[in-house]
Write a structure and sequence with these properties.
two-stranded antiparallel sheet, elongated, alpha+beta, three-stranded antiparallel β-sheet
């Protein structure tokens, strides 16, 4: 059984404090290194162009910049919690950028194994959904 999660929208919804807090608490990054990441995310603005007319710039308090060399690293830091959740329910997860595959194998010949696999996947998806809503 395979479930695909597309987390591409998460690039646009990550609050800047979330990966910074995770860098410090989970990965032990602090001091000047953490300050460097904070300055990379700070004071970002965005504007919109329609028919050659540019809007006023507005501040971005969330979003990990896509297409940057640091974007994938910060996104990985953000989604590192995903592995903790999945490991409680399933034996395997594979991620590449914002595409995640959850899978569990079972033998249809073994009584009840299919039901156990379905329950594990359902429980995992439930916990992941709650984490995504909360975080």
């Amino acid at each position: 059984m395979l479930v695909l999660l597309d987390l591409s929208a998460a690039f646009d919804t990550v609050r800047h404090d979330t990966p910074l807090n995770r860098l410090k608490s989970r990965f032990g990054v602090d001091g000047k290194a953490l300050d460097w990441f904070a300055s990379y995310l700070a004071d970002r603005t965005q504007g919109v162009t329609v028919n050659d007319c540019l809007s006023s710039a507005f501040p971005l308090r969330q979003e990990v910049p896509q297409g940057s060399c640091h974007g994938p690293l910060l996104f990985t830091v953000y989604t590192s919690k995903l592995f903790d959740i999945v490991s409680k329910h399933l034996p395997s997860v594979h991620c590449y950028a914002d595409d995640t595959q959850l899978y569990v194998a079972f033998s249809p010949a073994v009584q009840g194994e299919d039901e156990a696999a379905l329950n594990a996947m359902r429980d995992c998806k439930h916990d992941l959904r709650n984490w995504m809503i909360k975080d």
